[in-house]
Design goal:
The structure is a single chain. This protein is an alpha/beta fold and 183 residues long. The chain is 37% helix and 23% strand. It has one domain: 3-Layer(aba) Sandwich (Rossmann fold). It is built from 7 helices and 8 strands, in the order βαβαβαβααβββαβα. The protein has a 6-stranded parallel beta sheet with strand order 3-2-1-4-5-8, with helices on both faces. Strands 6-7 form a two-stranded antiparallel sheet. α2 (40-49) links the parallel β2 (34-38) and β3 (61-63). α4 (90-97) packs across α6 (145-154). The two termini are 25 Å apart.
């Protein structure tokens, strides 16, 4: 049997995308009852961008250190009410779009879907041309057609809301908070 709604937590997955990384960390740091799942690539991004732990004391941080992604079992125990994946690299988007679950991030997405946990998904490649913050400053990025197609595929997944901007990510999280509070 799943835990009570008020005991459930946010699950937030970080992947190897630096797109709006600081802004996502800021939002994440403001959420109560939020656990963080850090892919191997996200570990590298955290080091490149020089981040320290901005999370609350009750935050659990799970790293990609097991072959079978053991922490995903928490979804079957009803621990999480919402999955947020932000920012998401084009590599992770492609794997998720085609049902590949071979690391912590992709396993979390797959298991959340199988457990009917709503997901909010912010991919890094959402427009044919965009600007993104790199460790040394702003850069122009031109996502490939296949990257944009993979993001579109995700929009058809059950219980998955794909957002295309920081404003949309913030709005989706606020809407989910309102839904969870019953207002």
């Amino acid at each position: 049997m799943s835990e009570e709604k008020n005991a459930q937590r946010w699950a937030w997955v970080l992947t190897g995308s630096g797109h709006f990384f600081d802004e996502c960390l800021e939002i994440m740091g403001g959420l109560e009852n939020c656990d963080i799942f850090v892919s191997k690539a996200a570990e590298e991004v955290l080091r490149m961008y020089g981040h320290k732990k901005p999370f609350s004391e009750d935050t659990q941080i799970y790293r990609d250190t097991t072959a079978s992604a053991v922490p995903v079992g928490q979804f079957y125990k009803g621990r999480y009410h919402t999955l947020v994946m932000a920012p998401v690299s084009s590599n992770t988007v492609a794997k998720c779009a085609f049902g590949i679950s071979d690391n912590l991030a992709t396993n979390i997405f797959a298991q959340a879907g199988k457990c009917r946990v709503p997901s909010i998904y912010f991919a890094c490649d959402t427009a044919p041309e965009l600007e993104s913050m790199a460790p040394k400053g702003l850069v122009k990025v031109y996502p490939r057609k296949v990257d944009l197609e993979n993001v579109e595929r995700l929009k058809d997944f059950e219980d998955t809301q794909v957002v295309d901007s920081m404003a949309a990510l913030e709005a989706a999280i606020r809407a989910r908070q309102t839904e969870l509070s019953g207002k």
